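Open question from group meeting: does this chain pack into something compact, or does most of it stay loose? Before anyone orders reagents, we agreed to write out a predicted structure and look at it together. Recording both the input and the output here so the notebook holds the full record.
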Amino acid sequence: QVQLVESGGGLVQAGGSLRLSCAASGRTVSNRAMGWFRRAPGKERTFVARISWSGGSGSPYYADSVKGRFTISRDNAKNTVYLQMNGLKPEDTAVYYCAATKPYYSSSAHEDDYTYWGQGTQVTVSS
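Structure tokens returned:
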């Protein structure tokens, strides 16, 4: 089993930055693709960013709405994945979730490809 705990959310003004962390325990996530998703108020959960497992192919991939502003990264020594969010906009307000696949799965923008999920962290961007 993999347990994922997100942190780093909060209230920030438009144009500001936050860094979300997703700390994993139970198993290493270095051999798992990781993703960030978000659920805005009254909307379905949507894809934000994904990163391949260490040694996997492919560059990090982003939703068009966050491309150029958000950066996903991983620190295998800490078993942690990050989402650096710059240039935040009010429409980025949502609960942000991290997710992990089974070992050696390809990274994906689809929720169904992820097996483990965190509880989420709230990000609120004021105008």
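Observations to bring back to the group:
The chain has a mean pLDDT of 95.
The first strand starts at residue 3 and ends at 7.
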